[in-house]
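Worked Example 4.2. Read the sequence first, then its structure tokens.
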Amino acid sequence: MMHDLLMDDRMKGEAAGIFFLGYVLLQMAGGHLAGRWSAKKLVGLCLIFLGRMRGGLRAGENILSV
């Protein structure tokens, strides 16, 4: 797979580091928000937000395909 993506070991390490940093930051933010509100409400709000974002992307695809 690394040959197909034209990645060497340095680039693989950078990608893993960026993934780890993003994971840690999102875990901290999610933990903070879940502490302020209930986890059930947080998951519900995230699902609504992601659904609306996907709807917006779908509308954008339709506009660009015209």
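Now turn to a second chain, presented in exactly the same format:
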Amino acid sequence: MTCSLRWVPMILAAVVSVDCGDHAALAERAATTRAQRLVGVWDVRFEGEANLASRGAVREARGQIALLANRWLDGSYPRIGTPTDYGTYDVDFTPFGIEPRARGETPTVVAGWIGPDSVQIALTSTVSGMSLELRGRMRNDSVAGVWSYALTRVSDGGGRFSMTRQRQR
């Protein structure tokens, strides 16, 4: 019995080093210029069609997205893999007749690079089958592109978006 217990510290050390190695790699990635380019609070504007019941009516929603460099999330997301950044958002999507989060749910967002100057942002949701994604090109302190939302993997709408980084106060 003591012979097998002798290996416990070595096994624990191996497990800890693997865990630390994963976080070390994420921390190293978070320090890269690419990850740091998205850090900050962004003013965001969405323009597009309202829900299916009122097709043709152009609507607008405004709010904020706040992003931090990703030092902890190691999960994989469609199109971006492991996100370079994550955070939260405050946007009222009711002009479009949608709500991407369940009542009481903390609004979360992940972001990653899909090209040298192109970014994919996903407003994550626990609502079954709901997705809301932004895909755009970054220039200086702004990102512009298209957004779309889908319920149960069927595209239901979207439009154009723009976001501008807030200046330090």
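Notes for the reader: Residues 1-5, 7-21 have pLDDT under 50 and may be disordered. Helices lie at 2-5, 8-30, 33-37.
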